[in-house]
Write a structure and sequence with these properties.
Layout (H helix, E strand, L loop, with lengths): L3 E10 L2 E11 L4 E5 L6 H9 L6 E6 L2 E2 L10 E4 L11 H11 L4 H14 L15 H13 L5 E5 L7 H18 L2 E6 L2 H7 L2 E6 L2 E6 L1 H6 L4 H6 L6 E11 L2 E6 L4 E4 L11 E6 L4 E4 L6 E10 L3 E7 L5 E7 L9 E6 L6 E4 L11
Parallel strand pairs: 3-8, 3-9, 6-7, 7-8
Antiparallel strand pairs: 1-2, 1-4, 4-5, 9-10, 11-12, 11-14, 12-13, 14-20, 15-19, 16-17, 16-19, 17-18
Helix pairs in contact: 2-3, 2-4, 3-4
Length: 365
């Protein structure tokens, strides 16, 4: 196990700056996920940690020791790549042992580590096969096993499941989680899939354009997003956003005049200069309720109904032209083309963001 600290880390390729002053502190044995859209810098940040790219500025420390100038092979890390990066002419056993042989590890120790990794990842029966004889999931197990046998301080995973089908991704997520529980090592995992992030991480680092937007526990990011980007990225379907202006500021919160019509109270703080300011109201699909025989807060013209059996989704438009998604437990009789009334969440589940800065307005203390 090991700690990892990033202090104002920057990276530029020529005149293009791709990582902008990232600060992170990762504790012993944590499972950390870097998540964000394509091009946000998450894989570049992982390669900086691994030593595959050099930092332009700032410091990377492992167990308190500066490693900026330490070669990748001497950092005590192991990386699992998206492409598996297996040697096709070698057997699974040889793929697992090759790195240890290069390090002049004694043969009995190599045999012990290979046998232990094969047992842990349930691939004893695959040791004499070559990668071309394996399924995608089996090849990914071998790639993970090659990292395990090195007994690293920190495991680094660069979108390791993106080449697998949906069902196999779920299975491999569980296996990687079980591996983390058994080994207890620090693990850093890169993905663009926020479902993977939510289900696997102890803490999530959300990145956008090379900047750290928020770092925290999955449900903290879901329930208390710091800004519009995090609120819209974390959650599936994404949070709904409605435009409005501040109509009144009181001791019990802020009243918002919605572009879609009507006024809502949000229990948050705003400065006295916020009157008439443009804001965006955020409401998650599961916090919106259908109103039986009534108009509710806003009417929704339903354009798509998705019936999934255990839950249903309605997608449609408000009179303002803004789109909205609603999650309904169980099944629904609402069909495309109907108009239904909606209640836009209890006050405690309403999020209010400054439309200019994108920052969330703080809750009442």
């Amino acid at each position: 196990m090991a700690t990892l600290d990033l202090r104002q880390v920057t990276k530029s390729f020529g005149a293009t700056k791709v990582i902008h002053g990232v600060d992170l502190s990762i504790g012993h044995g944590e499972f950390i996920v870097f998540v964000g859209p394509s091009g946000c810098g998450k894989s570049t940040l992982l390669r900086l940690i691994a030593g595959l790219e050099s930092v332009t500025g700032g410091a990377i420390e492992i167990d308190g020791a500066l490693v900026n100038d330490v070669p990748a092979a001497e950092r005590g890390l192991a990386m699992v790549f998206q492409s598996y990066a297996l040697y096709p002419h070698m057997s699974v056993r040889q793929n697992l042992s090759f790195g240890l042989e290069n390090l002049k590890t004694p043969k009995p120790e190599i045999q012990r580590r290979v046998a232990e990794a094969a047992r842990m990842l349930r691939m004893e029966h695959l040791l004499d096969r070559r990668p071309g004889q394996l399924s995608g999931g089996q090849r990914q197990r071998v790639a993970i096993g090659r990292a395990v046998v090195r007994e690293p301080k920190i495991f680094l995973f660069d979108e390791p499941l993106s080449n697998l089908d949906a069902e196999l991704r779920v299975q491999m997520r569980i296996e990687i989680g079980n591996l983390h529980q058994r080994l207890g090592n620090t693990m850093i995992y890169v993905t663009h899939d926020q479902v993977e992030a939510m289900t696997m991480a102890d803490r999530i680092a959300v990145l956008k354009d090379g900047r750290l937007e928020q770092f925290g526990r999955p449900l903290d990011l879901y329930n208390r997003p710091a800004n519009l980007f995090v609120a819209g990225f974390i959650g599936s379907p994404r949070m709904n956003f409605l435009d409005g202006t501040v109509a009144e500021i009181g001791s019990d919160g802020v009243s918002i005049a919605l572009k879609a019509g009507g006024t809502l109270k949000v229990p948050c703080s705003a400065g006295p200069s916020a009157s008439a300011s443009a804001v965006r109201l955020g409401v998650r699909p599961e916090h919106i309720a259908l109103v039986e025989n009534g108009t509710g807060d806003v009417p929704l013209s339903v354009s798509i109904t998705e019936q999934l059996g255990g839950e249903s989704y309605l997608h449609g438009a408000l009179p303002s032209g803004e789109t909205l998604s609603v999650r309904i437990p169980g099944q629904t009789r609402v069909k495309r083309g109907e108009t239904v009334g909606l209640t836009l969440a209890p006050p405690e589940h309403r999020h209010l963001f400054d439309a200019t800065t994108g920052l969330v307005l703080p809750p009442l203390s």
